Amino acid sequence: MSECIVDLADVAYAWPGHQPLLKISRMQITAGERVFIFGPSGSGKSTLLGLIAGIHLPTQGCVTLFGKDTRTLSASARDRLRGAEMGFVFQQFNLISYLSVMDNVLLPVSFSAARRQRLGSIAEREQQADALLAHLGLGGHINQQPAAELSVGQQQRVAVARALLGKPKLIICDEPTSALDAQSRDSFLEVIANECQRNNAALIFVSHDQSLAAHFDRHLDMHELNPLISAEA
Q: Among positive and negative, which fits the CA dihedral 200, 202, 207, 211?
């Protein structure tokens, strides 16, 4: 039986002084699973990701990440857990334009002792980053180029490498294809799915575009997941 790495039970979330905006009775994600979460703007997708990432704490119920109840962890402990076990790919990729490809990929490792330990020495980290980039179709002199000089397709592969280096157990993609054309979008989906499968990492992919659902093992509709969504959302 696959390990459960994300478990939300009777969870509600509200900003201080406001009514709850998210309520989820149960949601579980297992190791290696590819989950697509879709819903329009205002449906609670970003809040849900904040709970899964341990950025927000539930105002009711329990969020368990990698076997740990986030309510029992300090803010710094949640930061360490996020850095060690989660990789993120954002809508605009969020690469640092003046840093090289290699420096962008290695950047999250500098914030996580657990990832550094898994990767080994500085030379071993760079070697594994090189191998991952090569597997993603990048390599050689391009790895020393500033991120600003890359095409969109190259940037998306760097973002995937950055998220995967150090083999985190969970990859979270927040609307990463919304600015891509159809060909780039399909290429991105293939790359991220294959790499997660290769590393047995769970994948949570959030989008408002329901047509992407066919690429995933399981689909979660925010209208069904969160009964607090207004009918207009």
A: positive
191-225 confidence digits (pLDDT tens): 888 888 888 899 999 988 888 888 898 999 998 98
**CA neighbor of 163 nearest in space, from 188, 192, 131:** 192
Q: Which residues contact 201 (CB under 8 A, 6 or more apart)?
A: 31, 32, 87, 164, 167, 168, 169, 170, 171, 195
pLDDT at residue 1 in the model = 65
Contact 101, 147 (CB under 8 A): yes
Find the range with the poorest average confidence among 6-10, 61-65, 173-177. Answer: 173-177
pLDDT of residue 92: 78
Rounded Cα distance, 48 and 96, in Å = 26
Is the CB of residue 5 less than 8 Å from the CB of residue 30? yes
Instruction: Tell me the C-alpha distance between 105 and 122, whole Å.
Output: 13
Q: How far apart are CA 218 and CA 204, in angstroms?
A: 10
Reported pTM: 0.89
Between CA 76 and CA 7 the distance in angstroms is 21
Contact 220, 34 (CB under 8 A): no
**6 in helix, strand or coil?**
strand
Task: Label residue 175 by pLDDT band (50, 70, 90).
Answer: confident
